[in-house]
Task: structure prediction
Amino acid sequence: MVKSWVMNPALSNPSSNAISNAGTGTPLSGLPPTFSPLYQQIKSLITQSLQSGEWKPGELIPSEMELATRFKVSQGTVRKAIDELAAENLVVRRQGKGTFVASHHEARAQYRFLKLMPDVGEPHSPDNKIIEVKRLRAPAEVARLLDMKSGDSVVFIKRIQSFDGIPTIIEELWLPGLIFKGLTAERLIEYKGPMYGLFETEFGTRMIRATEKIRAVPAAKDVAELLEIAVDTPLLSVERISFTYGDKPVEVRRALYSTSQHHYQNDLS
Amino acid sequence: MVKSWVMNPALSNPSSNAISNAGTGTPLSGLPPTFSPLYQQIKSLITQSLQSGEWKPGELIPSEMELATRFKVSQGTVRKAIDELAAENLVVRRQGKGTFVASHHEARAQYRFLKLMPDVGEPHSPDNKIIEVKRLRAPAEVARLLDMKSGDSVVFIKRIQSFDGIPTIIEELWLPGLIFKGLTAERLIEYKGPMYGLFETEFGTRMIRATEKIRAVPAAKDVAELLEIAVDTPLLSVERISFTYGDKPVEVRRALYSTSQHHYQNDLS
DNA sequence: AAGTGGTCTAGACCACTTT
DNA sequence: AAGTGGTCTAGACCACTTC
Result:
């Protein structure tokens, strides 16, 4: 019987048929061994499969029983690992169907990264207008935030989002050029649906977490013109850094929100 | 053996010695029966004990084994109930010690409701200056948000918070007068520590959840003077509604944040 | 009927804390 | 040594979905 806090032999033995990539994962390689709980090791292995694209967003992952057999642990241990992954929104469980890789194409994921809500009425998707898409050398600040070298290639995007015909959000994005190689204005314009959906389907990069720093700033002249408001109107400045697997930053986004008819909704719990 | 989705006889039988308040809880009273999972019923019962003050913030609650015996279920079922309560920050588990009722006096709880962070340096507690404390009839809007009748008694508090001597936050609070009966300016001024800590210890009301609506607004003349900034300087407007057990609203807070040296930090995950 | 995740149990042992 | 929460197992049955 496998005991707590002891490495599962099936997981640490590369010659075992339990798993194919034993010894390459975080808690399984390197010295000294970490002796994390078994379910954490399983969780790491599943996360690696998600990261590697073995199971893609929207797809079904193996059943709990199958994973338990593969990893030579009980179903309960696999269950606990998947429970945590579900709590982190990396997978979605569906009773009777199975467990699926989370995707930004699902309706339930739309408002996790869009916190601007109309003061009255139901939230709905904005109209996007791409202003500019170009490649450039990463400014020092952006390079630092993206964990790149200053001058490395980045894709720069500028767009305006309108609700009911009223321009409300103006934002600029910087993405690592290496990852988003074929990203063009045409592709962005013709694509229907959430931008993070495009990123995960076309570029194999799924945003799983983000941090935002919010400030109040006055509208500059160019911004005021685009948003059709008076110069110096207070706007919400939202600087977002998005991360994919392994806490790797893959997007810097600087947005200005007009909050005359919308507000940033946040729930503290 | 108790089956899934079937009411636990020990929980639904008032004459049982399993629990003293059987029949009074949400899933246990009323018709038709809800047939929620056992662990959800246990969770409800524990929440009721928290709400009733049977176990107060900071105190130790009965062990899993003891609760399992009391409720006539297995330890695993109690564990799952407590796991969810811990995830909701209602209790805190400490290995080897036991499970404790969460409290706003703990250091770990300080920054759950204070999202304003300094742009540089470590976060630290602000200096509080009480401007005004008085009783008044609830304005219509406040009454609506607090689920009270317009004109009901509320406690009104106005204060300024400074970081490193720089006035940064000006906020106004409305609290139900019935709950916060003995709240005076003196008590607020002499009290050291987080205000929610005072609320939970002195008034038996623990804030467990809040929603915030954030906008950018220009500083009015009186606000500008208090914050020592120019009129019309953009400020973050944060309207918070706090809830205690049973999703009962117990605080309306309208704050203005100066974001020249601070930002509102939010993590999307 | 078969397969999936969801619930519940009983028992074992481990890590941590206090006595 | 005793008590607590933390991990792991094995087995049972339930609810839901698909075949």
Observations:
- Residues 9-32 of chain B have pLDDT under 50 and may be disordered.
- The two ends of chain B are 40 Å apart (CA to CA).
- Residues 1, 3-6, 63-65, 79, 82, 93-99 of chain B lie near DNA strand D (CB under 10 Å from a C1').
- The first strand of chain B starts at residue 91 and ends at 94.
